[in-house]
Design goal:
CATH architecture of the largest domain: 3-Layer(aba) Sandwich
Distance between the termini: 68 Å
Number of helices: 13
Order of helices and strands: HEHHEHHHEHEEEEHEHHHHH
CATH class of the largest domain: Alpha Beta
Bound molecules: thiamine diphosphate, magnesium ion
Largest sheet: 6 strands, parallel
């Protein structure tokens, strides 16, 4: 690595030979509420409607309740490995709240808040995390994509969805959410690139929770921001405070409107923090310190919006109690329905991959059925 002086010397040489800058870029960051919930600039129009703000608040509270229940079910052996969105609720709730019903959401695995807001039921989500494929067959939002566990592989799918919208001349947008870790994958770079070349109606959102399991963002990239990955694809990129649901919604709404009007794709990097373990199969205390994590609780997106609502006299103790009662009731009922759903038969493992089952799998299918009947 050359020294700083040597680098400066080399830069001087470039200037001496008359090299001129041919392109300049900048990445902007936006936020409306500071971590305490105080507005730092005039709020966007939608935020003048108390109903809209309360609906965002409810969406985040519902996500947190869902997370807590799912973790409890997993810990008691009644759910598979689960990825909580604790502390990150503003990201997918903000995105989903800006979408139209006929847009298509392509989530990764930490977006239940947004999925619930779009009409996916908590029972479906629990079935999915319980290993039941019927949980991906949404009754509402049925054109939304299922949870994508492979990191970043849904970004090219979003390009396909957006291309279909463009070819059919439909005014719809594909919204794809992935993590900071996913931005190191070829799938994401290729998706951004081709979305740019074909000027597709796609909005990509990086849920930057600063960790990819035990790998911190600082080891993920040498770039100053992840949003600037848009620049190399020739598309617009920006950063928002991902714990400010108003900022996430405003940026997404702007990006969706642009894409819908034929203005092409957009990349938003939402800066948030993973307050919990990566999944229920992880123990984050092995690679990050408690005090580091606790400090991030001061940025909690739910407290932030509640503080604002309370300061504006739009929310009080009775509203809070009523909401918590309603949300807890809905999640408890969903858990009961999930637990009372008989599992699918073992033959379903075999039934949906091949049009005609190969001979050895026919034998295995029979053996599996026989083992259950015994
Ligand atoms: C293709 C692929 N490689 C590896 C994994 C294992 N894995 C699961 S989550 C994860 C890290 C993802 O980090 P990030 O994209 O930041 O999302 P986050 O989990 O922080 O939401 C990895 C490596 C996987 N699921 N898929
Ligand atoms: Mg991450």
């Amino acid at each position: 690595m050359p020294s700083a002086e040597r680098i400066e010397e080399l830069l001087e040489t470039r200037r001496d030979v008359g090299a001129t800058p041919v392109a300049r870029f900048e990445i902007r960051y936006s936020r409306y509420l500071d971590p305490k919930g105080n507005p730092v600039r005039p709020l966007p129009d939608f935020a003048r409607d108390p109903g809209e703000l309360v609906s965002l608040y409810r969406g985040m509270v519902l996500a947190r309740r869902f997370d807590a229940k799912a973790v409890a079910l997993q810990r008691t052996g009644r759910l598979g490995t689960f990825a909580s969105s604790l502390g990150q609720e503003a990201v997918s709730v903000g995105v989903a709240s800006a979408m139209r019903a006929d847009d298509v959401l392509l989530p990764s695995f930490r977006e239940h808040g947004g999925q619930l807001l779009r009409g996916v039921s908590p029972v479906e989500l629990l079935l999915f995390w319980g290993g039941d494929e019927r949980g991906s067959d949404f009754a509402e939002a049925c054109e939304d994509f299922p949870v994508c566990v492979p990191v970043g592989t849904h970004a090219p799918h979003a390009v396909g969805v957006a291309l279909a919208f463009k070819l059919r001349r439909e005014k719809r947008v594909a919204a794809c959410i992935f993590g900071d870790g996913a931005t190191s994958k070829g799938d994401v770079a290729e998706a951004l690139n081709v979305a740019g070349v074909w000027n597709l109606p796609a909005v990509f959102l990086i849920n930057n929770n600063h960790w990819a399991i035990s790998v911190p963002v600082s080891q993920q990239t040498a770039a100053e921001t992840l949003a600037q990955k848009a620049i190399s694809a020739g598309i617009e990129g920006e950063q928002v405070d991902g714990n400010d649901v108003i900022a996430v919604r405003e940026a997404t709404a702007r990006a969706l409107a642009k894409a819908r009007a034929g203005g092409g794709p957009h990349l938003i990097e939402a800066l948030t923090y993973r307050l919990g373990d990566h999944t229920t199969a992880d123990d984050a205390s092995r690679y990050r310190s408690g005090p580091d994590v606790s400090a991030h609780w001061a940025e909690d997106p739910i407290t932030r919006l509640r503080n604002y609502l309370v300061a504006e006299r739009l929310w009080g103790k009775t509203d809070e109690e009523k909401l918590l009662g309603e949300v807890s009731g809905a999640i408890e009922r969903a858990a009961e329905t999930y637990l009372a759903t008989p599992p699918q038969g073992p033959e379903t493992i075999f039934d949906y991959t091949y049009e005609r089952l190969p001979k050895d799998l026919v034998e295995q299918r029979e053996a599996a059925l026989g083992a259950v009947q015994r």
